[in-house]
Structures are given as structure tokens and as C-alpha cells.
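All the exercises in this workshop are built on plain-text protein records. The record below serves as our worked example for the rest of this section.
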Amino acid sequence: MPKTSTQRLGIFVVLAVVMAATRMHHSILHHFDALPDASWGIFFLAGFWLRGAGRWAFPLLMAEAVLIDYLVISGQGLDFWGHYCVSAAYWFLLPAYFSLWMGGSLLARHQVGLRLQTLGMAAVAFLASWAVCYALSNGSYYWLSDTVPLPRSMGAWSANMVDWYLPFLQTTALYVGIGAVLHVLATQVSRALNSAGHSQPPR
């Protein structure tokens, strides 16, 4: 469904707020600490809802993610650039998050409305882009971070990936699922309003 610039901006603001509220653990938004980080789900949903606005939306969301990390780390009195999370692997979040964006964007491009076929396409797009994101983020941290003890091996990396696989998948799927439900509801309401408007007799 085509979106106006105002609608795109509104969607972007909501997604940015959700990411801030769930990513800023141990910060001024401490009362949201119980919520899992929605960042991965946000980038997939943003790619779907904001397809065509990637030139400004993706860089802004990426900048927000880095800014939040900076605020959280420095807010604890720690050096951002010296923090164990900000190794060479940290910059692999850029292609990792972009893979999620592309997954959502490709789904938006090829989806055929509220049909079973779209559900299947959504599952494939989500799982494929999530797998790329997970491999990039987990793999880069394992192989490039100084905090991972030596010697490193493919076997140890595989074990590490298995340990975190389900928690990351479940969290991302939760937020994408919520987004999917909201999308279906919004689409149905829009159709109902359009139908009601067309059924009214001319005055």
C-alpha cells in the first residue's frame, strides 16, 4: 500500500521510539529493562514498511543504535571505544542490520497482499535475513573480539552460535510477529473505511 511522506515519518518515529525504549538498558529509561531489545525486529519491519526510504531511514536508525550504545556505555562511566562490545566486530552490525532491512524490503516488494502466499514469503524472508544477521554479528564477535579466549576454532564457534541461536530468534520473531499483527489490523481497517466511503450515496 503506498504511503505518504507523513505516514512514513510517523512509522519511522514509532519504530525509533520502540528501539530506544528497548535498547537503552540501565539508562534513563530503566523502567523498560524487562523488555528484550527490539533492534533486530525493528530493522526488518522498517525495511518492510519504509521500503523506498532507505536512503534516509536506514542511516538514521543505524545512527540511533550507535548513539544509544554510546549513551548507555558512557552513562556507566565507561570508555565507549574501550568497551568490550565495541571491538572491530561492532562495525559488522552495519551489514548485519542491513541484511534485516533488505529482508523486509524484498518482502514488501514481492508480497501479494493478505494471502497465504505472503505468509510463506514472510517466513522465508525473515528467516533468511535473520540468519545472515546472526551469522555476521555472532561470527564477527567470536573471531574479532579480544574478549573471546584463544585458541578459537570452528567447533567452538558453532557451539557458541547454538547457545544463542534460539534466544535471538525468539526475540526477533516476537517483535516481527507483533508488527505483522498490527499490519494486518491496519490493512483491514483501511479496507473497511474505504469500503464504507465508497458505499455512501453521493450528496
Q: What stands out?
A: The CA atoms of residues 87 and 151 lie 18 Å apart. Residues 26-32 have pLDDT under 50 and may be disordered. The two ends are 29 Å apart (CA to CA).
